[in-house]
Amino acid sequence: MRIRTAATVLSGALVLSVLVLPGAAQGAEHPGAATDLRAFASQSGRPKDALGGTTFKNGVVNKGKDIVLGVTGKKAVPVTFTAFDEEGLALTMAFLWQGTDSSSTDTITGALGTDDNPVCTETTVEGGYSYSCKAVFTIDPAVDFKDGNGIAGPWKLFLGAYDLYANASADDDVAKASIKRAAKLTVNASPEPVKKGKTITVTGKLTRADWSTGKTTGYATQPVKLQFRKKGSSTYTTLKTVKTSRTGALSTTTKAGVDGDYRFVFAGTFTTGAATAPGDVIDVR
Fold first, then answer.
1. Using an 8 Å Cβ cutoff, are 268 and 183 in contact?
2. By the number of CB atoms within 10 A of the CB, which of 126, 131, 233, 252 ranks highest?
3. Please, what's the b/e burial string for 2-17 (b: 16 or more CB within 10 A of its CB; e: otherwise)?
4. Are domains 6-180 and 183-282 of this chain identical in fold?
5. What angle do CA 227, 231, 233 make, to 5 degrees?
6. What pTM was estimated for this model as a whole?
7. Which CATH number is associated with domain 6-180?
8. Are 90 and 9 in contact (CB under 8 A)?
9. Closest CA to 285 of 194, 149, 192
């Protein structure tokens, strides 16, 4: 009968060195996540020089969607992956990280640990054992990102494991993830009602989360589409593209034709999520 747990396979001192050095789950605040990541990466060889032979694949973060965060409120981000080992695994762990070298704390610009160690289901396959694993990162921008907005952008999934003989394996780029600042758009079309052929002025504002201040701020010089939907239709048509001011404000004009609603649409950027304003209805008489 195979032994499933690290504690019953590894001897006392070795168990401590394996299970304590990198640390287990970091919780929402993720204290020491960068240090734990570096420690495991250094020990495992990242991964070509690793003593262990565990391989990882099929990593998916947040179901393949961007992780978009405002200034408040925790967000649970799921991660799934598969692992294979000829002898079997005692422990797996996962980190989200950003930087150039996961084995050096100096080059890690961001690191997040999972709430708990990944839960894995083992299946016997030809040549060894396959594991289907899942875990959750709970991210609190008010705590985790309070030092600034510079970490918005691309992140990577780091996966590590110990086999039943305490050999470590790791892969620091199993999957990509994108953490972005949440954006919001407002819109107001006036006057209302308006005579056909008269000028309509459409105003609004584009703002986004500022993690360093815990507030939202205007997003300057960004292209935003003005769209119109005729009453009774389900389809919006783009009328023009306008840019926000240095404070994020929007203002443009168009001619009144028929009843319908106007909205602004922002496609998002490398660091900021997309946003769509709710439509503002205009009554044309």
1. yes
2. 131
3. eeeebeebbeeeebee
4. yes
5. 75
6. 0.84
7. 2.60.40.10
8. yes
9. 194
